[in-house]
Amino acid sequence: MKTAESITYIANWLKDYSDNSNTKGFVVGISGGIDSAVTSTLCALTGKEVLCLLMPIHQHQLEFDRSKEHADWLTSTFPNVEVCTANLSDTFDCISKQIPADLQSDLTMANARARLRMTSLYTYAGAKSLLVAGTGNKVEDFGVGFFTKYGDGGVDLSPIADLMKSEVFAIAKEMGIVNSIQNAAPTDGLWADGRSDEDQLGATYNELEWAMKAYAKDTENIYTDRKKEVFDIFSRLHKANRHKMDAIPVCKIPSSLKPSFS
Q1: What is the C-alpha to C-alpha distance for residues 98 and 82, in angstroms, rounded to an integer?
Q2: What are the angstrom distances between the C-alpha of 236 and each of 196, 213, 242?
Q3: Could you tell me which residues come within 8 angstroms of residue 138 by beta carbon, excluding any fewer than 6 positions away?
Q4: Nearest 5°: phi and psi at 95?
Q5: Which of 168, 130, 141, 167 has the alpha carbon at shortest distance from 17?
Q6: Helix residue ranges per DSSP H, the chain
Q7: Alpha-carbon distance 5 to 7, whole Å?
Q8: DSSP string covering 127-139
Q9: From the centroid of its chain, how far is CA 9?
Q10: Which one of 10, 35, 61, 131 has the fewest CB atoms closer than 10 angstroms to its CB?
Q11: What confidence category does residue 261 fall into, taking pLDDT thresholds of 50, 70 and 90?
Q12: How confident is the model at residue 196 (pLDDT cuts 50, 70, 90)?
């Protein structure tokens, strides 16, 4: 990938999209991870208004510290960037109290956090005439479906969704993203214990990138040992999460059941 040229291309694409939609710029949720750091910086490069929103929900302190460090770097580098913090911990606790305990699990409540953040992003976006910029990469959005439907998957546009994770890291290095984020294990910021994406997925992003390419070639039966294990992880997640990646199914009513108009 031509990294510098790709950065310019994405920034121009973002600016054109905003211009054509008559919006002032972008709002981005900052988690302390590489994807949101790269996305927010690409948005800042457009020269348009950028609001970075920090939304801790009992967030691990190291993750929040990284998000704050990135936000400080952005505002010191780009005069068009504004940073706000909306601590949603009390709001999340209030919602949790209204849901029966036997319906709550780590996963369902992590998804609830993501959807609460999406609601907040759109509140700010609507008030300020901004677009919600998604932070998902290609492996997450089109490979294993590692996002929350109507949570971090609820966005207006996706500037890095055609980039593999390795390409996101390359862009981060080119743009000078703070080292603490470049060196941190990728995480979605939804867990108080700070668990990484690899902890949840069972494979590294480099492994999943390989599996995504292998899956497209339908070469399942030639792998053994770790490659077979990773291929199976990718295959299982890809199939289980198709409902996130495909268009919402619509029940098409046969014309014979509808009134005719003449």
Answers
A1: 34
A2: 19, 15, 10
A3: 160, 161, 162, 163, 164, 165, 212
A4: -65, -45
A5: 130
A6: 3-20, 34-44, 61-77, 89-97, 106-128, 138, 165-175, 179-182, 197-201, 205-216, 225-240, 242-245
A7: 5
A8: HHTEEEB----HI
A9: 20
A10: 61
A11: low
A12: confident
Taking residue 116's Cβ as centre, other Cβ atoms within 10 Å add up to 18
* pTM beyond 0.70: yes
pLDDT above 90: residue 255 = no
User: Which residues, at least 6 apart from 23, have a Cβ–Cβ distance to it below 8 Å?
Assistant: 129, 130, 131
The pairing of strands 81-85 and 130-132 is: unpaired
Confidence of residue 260 (pLDDT cuts 50, 70, 90): confident
Residue with tokens 């295959």: 235
Residue 52: enclosing H or E segment and its boundaries? strand 49-54
Kindly state the average pLDDT of the residues 44-69: 95
Instruction: Say which amino acid occupies 38.
Output: V
Compute the distance between CA of residue 17 and CA of residue 13 in angstroms, rounded to an integer.
Answer: 6
| Amino acid sitting at position 235 | S
Domains and CATH numbers, the chain: 3-198 (3.40.50.620)
**Statement: residue 223 has pLDDT above 90:** no
CB 19 within 8 A of CB 186: no
Selected residue with higher pLDDT from 216 and 37? 37
Do you know the residue count of the chain? 262
